[in-house]
Specification:
By secondary structure, this protein is mostly helical. The protein is built from eleven helices and no strands. Helix 1 packs across helix 6 (101-126) and helix 7 (133-157) packs parallel to helix 11. The longest helix is centred in the first third of the chain and has 29 residues, at 58-86. The mean pLDDT is 86.
Length: 235
């Protein structure tokens, strides 16, 4: 464990020297501030001019914040892994005590723990739909697992950081499950139920339920296991 913590600290130092990765760390709070103040202002403006209120979609906005935060942290982990692979450092770590799951924990596990804490904090402070603490905690947990799968997906598919950046832009597909809950009527919305974000949307819209949490957990674990196998082959 001590070696894993040391490797995690090395990763932090690498991130502080990379402006692109460093700016992603405070990004969830900047997004939260924008959502917190810009969306209600836009709603009031549209209601006064067009009699159109955005209040029914406040839950969707909060869901985006909960989903985007782990995705941003996952991209930091993925780009760091790709950089180490490009430089041959990742292969070096595989012959040290930090190989295998210890390396995975240092590069994805610890950052995702940080992501969970940040997501919970940001959602509590910046949510605009009055989410309960239970809903925030459960949704953030599923979202964090989804972020872990995303990090492994990027590293598994991308050959270098340039490809990783392109793939990360396509990662927005993961959010389709969340969006369909608001815009696609039942039962057609269930077509995106294989995406964990769908179950996050269900918990936000309908309230927390054991069924939605378990289904979100199962699909998240499915994607983690699926990409973990590919991830291990690439590193």
């Amino acid at each position: 464990m001590r070696q894993t913590v040391k490797l995690f600290q090395i990763g932090i130092r690498q991130i502080t020297r990379d402006g692109m990765l460093l700016v992603l760390l405070p990004a969830p709070f900047l997004i939260g501030l924008i959502f917190k103040f810009a969306i209600p202002f836009a709603s009031q403006f549209l209601e006064s001019r067009l009699s159109l209120s955005l209040i029914p979609w406040y839950g969707l906005v909060d869901g985006l914040l909960i989903c985007l935060t782990p995705m941003l942290i996952a991209m930091v982990s993925a780009f760091l892994l790709l950089e180490e692979r490009d430089e041959g450092i990742g292969a070096f770590y595989q012959i040290t005590p930090t190989e295998g799951y210890a390396y995975l924990m240092a590069r994805i596990g610890f950052p995702m723990v940080y992501s969970l804490l940040v997501t919970d904090f940001a959602a509590v402070i910046f949510n605009i739909s009055g989410l309960s603490v239970g809903t925030i905690v459960c949704s953030s947990f599923i979202s964090t697992l989804m972020g872990s799968a995303l990090a492994m997906m990027i590293v598994s598919i991308a050959g270098n950081r340039v490809e990783g950046l392109a793939i990360s832009k396509l990662a927005g597909v993961i959010l389709l499950g969340l969006v369909t809950v608001w815009f696609i009527p039942a039962p057609y919305a269930v077509l995106t139920a294989f995406l964990p974000s769908f179950w996050i949307g269900k918990m936000i819209m309908d309230g927390i339920s054991l069924f939605s949490f378990i289904m979100g957990l199962l699909f998240s674990l499915f994607w983690i296991i699926f990409f973990l196998r590919k991830f291990q082959k690439r590193i």
